[in-house]
Specification:
By secondary structure, the chain is of the alpha+beta class. Helix content is about 15%, strand content about 35%. The protein has five domains: about 100 residues, Alpha-Beta Plaits (2-Layer Sandwich); about 300 residues, Rossmann fold (3-Layer(aba) Sandwich); about 150 residues, Glucose Oxidase, domain 1 (3-Layer(bba) Sandwich), CATH 3.50.30; about 130 residues, Sandwich (Immunoglobulin-like), CATH 2.60.40.10; about 140 residues, Immunoglobulin-like (Sandwich). Strand 28 and strand 29 form a beta hairpin. The longest helix is centred in the middle third of the chain and has 19 residues.
Length: about 900
Amino acid sequence: MVRSALFVSLLATITGAIARGSGHTSKIVPGAYIFEFENDHDTAEFYKQLNGEGSTRMKFDYKLFKGVSVQLKDLSNHEDKAQKMAQLPAVKNMWPVTLIQAPNPKVEWVAGTNSLPALQSRDVSPTDPSNFPPHKMVQIDKLQAKGYTGKGVKVAVIDTGIDYTHPALGGCFGAGCLVSFGTDLVGDDYSGFNTPVPDNDPKDCAGHGSHVAGIIAAQKNPYGFTGGAPDVTLGAYRVFGCEGQAGNDVLIAAYNKAFEDGAQIITASIGGPSGWAEEPWAVAVARIVSAGVPCTVSAGNDGDHGLFYASTAANGKKVLAVASVDNENIPTVFSLSSYKIDSGADTKFGYVPASKGADGWKGVTKPVYALTLDTTIADDACSPLPDNTPDLSDHIVLVRRGSCTFVQKAQNVAAKGGKYLLYYNTIAGALSVDVSTVPQITAAGMVEDSTGATWIAAIKDGKTVTLSMVDLNEATKQIQFSNNKATGGALSTYTSWGPTWEMDVKPQISSPGGNILSTYPVALGGYATLSGTSMACPLTAAAVALVAQARSNFDPTLLENLLATTANPQLFNDGAKFYDFLAPVAQQGGGLIQAYDAAFATTLLSPSSLSFNDTDHFVSKRQITLKNTSKNRVTYKIGHVPTDTFYTLANSSGYAAPFPNDAVASHASVRLSQQQVTVPAGRSITIDVFPTPPRGVDAKRLGLWSGYITVNGTDGSHLSVPYQGLTGSLRKQQVLFPEDSWISNSTDTKLNPVANGTVFTIPGPGNAGPTDILPALAVNLALGTRIVRADLVLLSAPPHGTKIKTKKFFDTTSIGQPSGSPLLWQSRGPTSISWSGELTDNKFAPPGTYKVVFHALRIFGNEKKKEDWYVSESPAFTIKYA
């Protein structure tokens, strides 16, 4: 068997590697490997070679993936053992087991532990789920009105499990239940590093999976909504323990298990920055899509990192990556209490309690003290309160939201004795605050702007406002939807941007993910409002179910094309305001999905997007195919709507700029082979698309240009195909600069550099533990790379009598690579290898002074060519063994 150089590079472990990025941490499990077999025969030699020296983590006896993941026992010799096993004829591929962080959506609100309180409604009828705003945004309400509810469709949810005991999630698990199939692949105590202990009960103990499940299929409930496809049957595939991470071996197994259990759609709101379609989990998901099952995966919550920060497995070929848009109507669930002015009648009002801690409202009846009577103040309580401020301990202190953090305001209130704190909002609605770091605050929460203004008006008149608070778990709830004028319908600022490092269009589509009300485990409160691409993804899965039901067709390519080309592109919004140009394709794909239009489209456009690549690999012509499946002849006008060009790199810098990226009002032009065509019923036509990149764009900053080919028919159809290209060369762009490597402490999560020449006294060979302070060999990548190689150069004379064999990698002569090298499929940003002194040949380096020489392969580079590697040398450091 001939193996590529990249495959050979995979044979080294990546122990201790950390890819950092906005909450996503990808680590390697020491001594754990995935082995994919050519077939399920001829594996006896593999197990003979294993010879009891390792335990099985996961077995892959699947149609699309056959193999095993193992945990080798001898961590001082695991690389050598893995290399020998990888060379066996039965082994097709070998990868280290990497860990994906549990999803990290923003928790906006969680109900009390009394999960089904009495509920009043305002601005929404709890008996009419068709008024649910996210459904109206994507036309799910229109499909449900026509009777499409996903009946008979099997949707697998790969996540933290599902609390199937929840009344709105069916109340049971198994045949005849809403959650009718699935399994727990890991067990409660699984952390990612330990061996999974599967069982047959996929009940959720973390919360995320239950929220996702409710977005898809929640049944009628007191909060007045249902899932997007409430009559589907759900499969729960639990891949996380109650805490911790998930191995890519578990994720690969879960996808294949769901596929073989007959899931017709598989969804996962999981991921981490990569941008490489060759990453093994992405490869496994792409195979399932190719086998005919649509797979939706969240695009990621790293929007603050800007362009080229695609997430795996969403970056897989034909895997449907879903971006998030903000809800047009933000739900707020208020806990009702009462107030009175002087000795007047009690009046109901609603508050949103603090998200954690500071929840001691039970039985509190106290007068309101407003720090200022100015309801327009921007910085209320942002500075220490005046010396003449009275003791606030026997009041409920009212503070306006704005300017500084909630914690700063709480600290200043606490400094004057304040224990009870209510913020009033600057806009309609309210949100949950976290002041748990201010222990003096006993109870906190927020009321809406109009409530705060009413109280202050009374206080201005010299009256006393007294609040009688009701505890969160005892209060009647009231739901309100507030019009989101600032960002409603806009791409969420947190949604991750593409494209991939090979210029594939990612994400392909967008869906509501900001401020989404759904179910939550009963033990954790029953209902919650969360924000993230984690929420956009399952709503898209529900839309896929409805569209597939309406068309009686589950073909992934057809569904992707339909959803992307009938979507509505949205205007760009930087989180503060809308602009007069469309958001770039790298942020929103085709735009906000329109499920009804996709379900009944008679004009089919393909493909779902066009990529013209970068300047070096510029594609001068692409084609779109237009097919008229109606019974009538249709005439189409074909046009072009460009959007602004966005720069990847900061000005005069080789490093990526954070969101919002600089935009330049320079647009690509597009020539079409035909601008108007008449297509008979049942016929199709192909149209050539010739782009001209925009002028006046600084190629050194990697300007991403994009837009939409528009198709408008006399039958009323309105469709578009997103396109993108890049002015500049990814291949020529430096992915690693000489100064971007250093040494840190392995226990320092911020990777701060230590002083040049720092001496590390580390445990003897083979004895290092996770809490020991080791040298962290750190490198900061300006852009992504498939391979980062680290070589250790001994700067001091070796101990007397020590024989050292040196190795050479181009111009670097070293004693070898540290265990943990090379790093593979890396996104940009800092990463590190915690080094215990072990080398990849399972030997240990002698004590002495070293430097590390990092080599990073350029994008589109050839690893056999010296000129395709960028080099950085770290400062010197010394190791001694205890």
